Amino acid sequence: MRTRQINVPVPVVCQEAEPARPVMPTEALEEDVTLDAFAAAAIAEIERREGYEVQLRAALAVCTRELER
Q: Taken in order 44, 45, 48, 50, is the CA torsion positive or negative?
């Protein structure tokens, strides 16, 4: 009888912290905001969301990388 080694993926808990969601500029606007103020806040929010997405993708990459043997 021979012993064979079979590699089986085993799930492990990811220890990477989830980045905190930033406050979005459009969430703080008053109801009677001007169109120009809304547009400026929306543009700022796009930039903030893109930065947050980079942080989320980095955390995901850490959690999904192959473990060292």
A: negative
Query: Domain of 54?
Result: 35-69
pLDDT-derived band at 1, boundaries 50, 70, 90: confident
Report pLDDT digits (tens) over 16-62: 999 999 999 999 999 999 999 999 999 999 999 999 999 999 999 99
* CA separation for the pair 42, 40 (Å, rounded): 5
Within-domain flag for 48: yes
Question: Does residue 28 lie in a domain region?
Answer: no
Classify burial at 27, counting beta carbons within 10 Å of its beta carbon; exposed 0-12, middle 13-18, buried 19 or more: exposed
Q: Based on the structure, what is the number of domains in the chain? A: 1
The pTM (predicted TM-score) of the whole model is 0.71
